[in-house]
Structures are given as C-alpha cells and as structure tokens.
Amino acid sequence: MNSIRIWQLVYCIFCLYCYSSFAASNEGKLGSYNIDTTAISVSGLSSGGFMAVQMHIIESDTFMGAGVVAGGPYNCAQDSLSTALTACMSSPYMIQVKSLIENAKAQADLGRISSLDHLYNSKLYLFSGKEDSIVKPGVMTKAQEFYEEFVNPANILTQYDIVAEHGFVTMDNGGACNRIYTPTYINDCDYDSAYHLLNHIYGGNLEVPSYSLTAPAPRGTVLAFDQSEFIDTLNPSSIGMDSKGYIFVPDSCAGATESCRLHVSIHGCKQGDSFIGDSYVMQTGYNEVSALNNIIVIYPQASVIPISNPNGCWDFWGYTDSNYAYHNGKQVVAIMNMVKRLTSGSTAMTSSSAPTMITTTPDVVPTDASTIKITEPKTTTKPGSSIEDGVLGSYKADKNAISVSGLSSGGYMAIQMHVAESDNIMGAGAIAGGPYYCARNSLTLATTYCMTMPMGINVATLKSDAQDYVISGAVPDLSNLNNDKVYLYSGTEDTTVLKGVVEKAEEFYLSYVNPSNIKTEYDVASQNGFPTMNKGGLCGFRNTNDINNCGFAAAYHILNHIYGGNLQMPDYESNDLPKGQLLEFSQADFVDSSNPKDIVMDETGLVFVPTSCSSGTTSCRVHVAFHGCKTSDSVAEAFANDAGYNEVAALNNIIILYPRTSVNLITNPQGCWDWWGFTSEYYATANGEQIKAVMRMLDRIVS
Q1: What is the pLDDT of residue 390?
Q2: Which of 58, 355, 363, 480 could form a disulfide with 422 if both were Cys (CB 3.0 to 4.6 A apart)?
C-alpha cells in the first residue's frame, strides 16, 4: 500500500457520513436579529463536540452553556493528530486531565482564552452512547472531569445510559440506535438529544416538540448564507470551512420585536454541506425545539483541506495552525464573527452591511525567547567569515568529534544517522525518539507502535533488520557503536511519543553500546517538546514551537554526556548572547538534484559558529541538531535560538548544524524528518537521501 493511501487511512479513522434531503433557499448575507446576548450557547457532535468545547472554553464570556455529544476535554489533542486519534478517541486512559486543566489556566493567564471564572454558572450537557466505538465513553468522562474543575457541579447534566453507537441521537430519525448507521451517523434511539441539551442549557422549561408523524413542519425558515465574509482571507477553504453556512430562524424571531436566544450547532466530520447538503441541519431535531422556544440556530459548515483535513472535520488537533484552541484560532474567529453579526441588532438577511471582522493575527506573548538574530551571510556576513553568500563554509573541525541529536521525528533521525553513519558519528542524543528502523518503511507502524503503542515494537526484529543492512553494506558494522555515548530523554507527561517507545530505543542500544555510556532521563514532567532551562512555554504542555520551559537544560546534558562530562555550563540567569553567529546557508549544494524539495528538505539550513571556531585556529567539535515536525521559518528559528545548544556550544568550541526539512502535501504534510520511508525505502541507511544530504554538509564543515 503506498504512503498516500496509508496517510489517508490514518485520517479516515475519524469520519462521519450523512444523508441529504433538503435544499435550502433564500441564500444571502447573514443578517442581524434581536438576540439576548446573555443566552448564547453551543453544541456539537464528535469533531463538532470537541469544537463546541473549544468555543465554550475559549469564549466563555460569550457562551453561557454547551452541549457535547461524543466529544472530549478542552485541548485534548494538544496540537497533535496522533494524540487526537489515540488518547482523544480510543485510549482515554492516556488523557492527563490535570495537565489539561493547568494548561487552560495558563492560557487564560496569558489572555489566549477568556477567564475561566465565567464557566462557573454555565449549563453543561454531556452525552456518550454506551456502545460508542469511535469516541469511547471514557473520553467523555474525562471531559466531565475537566469541566468539574470550573463549572458548578449542579449545572452539569450527563447522559451515559443510552445504548447508542457513535452518532447524533434523535427521537425518530436515522438508523438502529446501537449500531453505526451509515451513511448518516444519525441514530434513532427514541431520545431527543437536541431537546434535552437545549432544555438543560436554557433552564429546564422548554416546550417539547410533537413527535407525531403528522406533526407540522417547524414554524421557521432555513436560510443559507455566505461564510466567506467572516474569514479574514475571504477564502473559507483555506481554513477548512465551506463557502456556505445555514441558519434556522423561527417565525417568531424573524422580526425585531421578539427577543430570541442563539445556539451554535456544530456538525461532525463528513457532515458538512460539501458532503451531505443540509441533512445535519434538517434531521438532528434542533429546528423542531427552536421553533417552539424562540431559539435561532446557526449551523457553521466545515469542509475539506486535501491531506490535512480530507474528511471535513473541525479543527481540534491543529491542522489550521497551532492557535486553533485560542481566541485567534482561525475557525474560532470565523464563528465568533458570525455570532457578532447575528447579535449586532438589525432585523433580517441583508446584502448591505459588512461584519466587523476579528482578525487571526497570532497572539504574541512578549518573551525573551529570540536571543540570537538570524544573520544571512549574503547581506550581513561577518568580516573574515568563511561562510559567504549563503554557502556553508569549512572550519578547523575534529572529524572524530561529530555527534547528533534531535526531537521527536528529529530524535528518530538522530538515531538513524547514528546507526547508519556509526563510523563517522561518535555519539547521539534523542528526545522523544524511538529505536532504529522502528517504522520499518511503514507510516502505519510509525503512527501507532512507534508513538503510542510500544508494546508492538519487537526490538529483536529491528536488530535483525539492522544486521541485514550491515551485511548488504548499507550500514557500517554495528561494533562501531560500542564506545559511543548515547543520551535518551522522555518526559513523564509526553502523550505523543510515550516513554515505552524511548525505552525500546534504550533496549536496542544496549545490544551494541557499552551500558556505562548510555545515560537516560525519564523523570522530568514535560510534554512532547524540547526541554530548556528557561525558554518556551509551560513544561507539561504542548507549546507552539515545541520548546518547553522545564528548568532543565536538555541541550547541555546531551552535549555534556556525549563529550565526556566536563563541559562548561552556561549561566542561564545572564542575558548575554552566546558569542558566535547563527548563519543561514543554502542546502541545495548538498542534494543530488540541487533541489532540496525533491527530498523534502528546505532551501536553507542554519549553522551556529562560536567566535572561537570562526578564526580557523581552534579545533572545534561538530554537532547536528534535528528539529521535530511542523517545521516553518519561525519554528526553525525558535529551535535554533531557544533550544539551548548555542549557549553550550559558544563556551565549549562546538559548531551546531541545524539542517531543515520542508513540507510535501502528499507524503509529508507535517514537515517531519523521514523515519518511515517517504523519500525512499533506503531512508534509514547511508544511502538515505536526507542522511546523504546531512553527511555532505558535515563533510563541507570538516573539510
């Protein structure tokens, strides 16, 4: 099975299907109504359930209640698709609610979400079917546990006793209650979820619809509206939203005289208009309840982004960007713009007034993170520097003191390079990386066993694979590893690459490396990210640039162990910049085709050269530091600036090379290093395209 197919299958785990029966009319711009702004609520199913939680938490000063059907706790996925597909769906035991609570409090303190104090008086309805096999009931109980930290327990109503499979539960629409009903994922359970959640949110006295087959249609109008004006780019598809949204307006709310409530209903994956028209709008039961109780219901619509969101899900794992769970999340902003229009006080659908837009400019929190400025040699080359016009230079470097390290996919890459080039590399450090050749040329294995299911990793098989490569000449003799230094790190809170995976790397190395040369650190309470002494975000949470402030200088400990244990430690209280230059260079010279994109590498890389190493008189060591996935200019610069390598390197005569990957929308949309075979089947050997490119960079530096 090719890698495209496998990647699509990974995403398809979180799919929903629906059936269309009604074509809405009266399309136009979204209008304004006489809405009670103290009676705005939100609900959703599945990915829409996660989105409803996000909206409720992020904008708790706007939303006074929420209904969640088959969703989970706020920021459950923590910017990770792997976590979304495992912990947040099928493995709730992996969800660390205390960490999520602390993260939410931290984001509120930073102003990225509203004050959590607003939640105390909220009304909350939580539903999970007993037979749900897609989002397990335990995920919903984790959501309840999260909310109980902030919401008055008397205001939380749960329904976990209906024998329903995954889907939206209704009184009489859809298929058999206890089975996944395709194509609609709407379940006929003789239970009206829409009524019960709205009734709880709005005080418990709503009028109940008639469920008679002869009951008249709801008294109101379903209108289609243009969503593009609520997105700052005016291009909904760029953020995974459709050009069309829907709204149900009860007849009683169509004029300006009646004050009405507003509810935002958010569909699940593959339930948007681009998949099934208005079936979710017409079959879930919201309109019937709303028509009787003066509630306007708006149905924003998600759609497909090829590769990153092929199933039209709402963003609860970060496919739009890393701000998805904050005020400035692109989809959050769009929905809030719709709410702002609806509540702005005019009376009908109109084509005249434009909305007051909320922008999605990143929320910048002032820090001292950017301590080293990027210097481009073509414009700011230091006099006498051997790097000129973006070309990587040569230095007086010790060929016997070359080492590697990396984070996550970079951790895997560091271990691959160490094994594949053990006659050139004398030490390695891996943070959240697993054993050599773990994925065995398979994306499926990479995203399962090699991240969250270490019990499936067979180290004996990996050792046999490595030996086969030795016999074929693709990897040097493994006896080269015996005297090497190895440093392995796993954070106790890491939910992306579990500790057991790193322990499998330790098991692999113990077969070849002198045990006294292996140092492990498994006791720091950090999430997936690079732990530093004082840079980055909170230690126990996923952070935008994957840099974690843990009071632990991983870069120092890695380099100190590899290079003998006597390195000078930086003064982390000092604001002085490391003595040296961080230079940008072209990576094209080191790729066979001269086009780095061919092997999913960026056009430029970075190198830090201590002042002591630039003169050509001091013999210096060389270390390669591999970033993790989701590379970008800002992330790459943050890794080079903030991980802490440069501070150590400047004091200890170590040149740090920071090669960079890029994105391939089909094979590598997250910008990871190749540790599962998207460049070629020889990716983990000396013939691997990315390994060859980095080795050529090293050859240049030490020549």
Answers
A1: 58
A2: 480
H-helix or E-strand spanning residue 518: strand 518-521
Instruction: Find the helix or strand (DSSP H, E) in which 241 lies.
Output: none
What three-state secondary structure class fits 276?
helix
Please choose, from the candidates 174, 351, 392, the residue with its C-alpha nearest in 3D space to the C-alpha of residue 271.
Answer: 174
What span, in angstroms and rounded, lies between the C-alpha atoms of 542 and 493? 10
Name the residue type at position 622. Answer: V
The token pair that represents 653 in the structure block: 């005569």
Mean pLDDT of 521-544: 92
Q: Compute CA distances 42 → 49, 194, 375, 608, whole Å.
A: 9, 11, 48, 49
Annotated active-site residue 192? The verdict is: no
Residue 485 bridge partners (DSSP):
427
- 132 tagged catalytic: yes
- The pTM assigned to this predicted structure is 0.59
Selected catalytic residue, list 56, 118, 166, 623: 166
Among 200, 197, 190, smallest CA distance to 169 is for: 190
Distance, in Å, from the CA atom of 63 to the CA atom of 52, rounded to the nearest integer, reads 10
Q: Is the pLDDT of residue 328 over 50?
A: yes
Return the SS3 of 226. strand
Chain-centre distance of CA 94, in angstroms?
A: 16
Token code pair at residue 126:
């939580």
From the list 32, 46, 279, 290, the catalytic residue is 46
Out of 43, 118, 128, 132, which one is annotated catalytic? 132
Question: In the chain, where are the structural domains located?
Answer: 14-209+219-342, 377-571+582-702
Place of tokens 């590498």: 601
